[in-house]
Amino acid sequence: MTIGVLTLEAVIYNAGSLKEKRSVTKSVADKVKRKFNVSFSEIAYQNVWQRVKWVAVTVSGDRRTAERELQSLLDFIDGFPALDVSLTEWEWL
User: Fold this and answer.
1) What is the mean pLDDT of residues 35-58?
2) From the record, what ranges are coiled-coil (predicted)?
3) pLDDT over 70 for what percent of the chain?
4) Start-to-end CA span in the chain (Å)
5) pLDDT averaged over the chain?
6) CA–CA gap between residue 54 and residue 51 (Å, rounded)
7) Which of 41, 53, 63, 91 could disulfide-pair with 2, CB 3.0 to 4.6 Å?
8) What pTM did the predictor assign?
9) Measured between alpha carbons, how far is 32 from 80 in angstroms, rounded to an integer?
10) What is the CATH number of the domain that holds 61?
11) How many CA atoms lie within 13 A of 8 on its CB side?
12) Average pLDDT over residues 52-68
């Protein structure tokens, strides 16, 4: 069994308020949760307008499957023009 953890930070340049930021982050999080077999949550910068830090966790029978799922999620998030992913960290348990 493999547990894959992907932590990522992103910048939301066009957010001028927490309300605008949350509109973007909630939309992304809802889509990720529907599309991917991961647990996904915002873990930092909740009160910062233009910055978000998320963690995604998946459990799989082998590392390759877990890595493929998390890489697909990262590619999906990169497709949002409102977000600029600035940092990613991978961890395997």
Assistant:
1) 96
2) none
3) 100
4) 9
5) 95
6) 10
7) 63
8) 0.90
9) 12
10) 3.30.70.1120
11) 22
12) 96
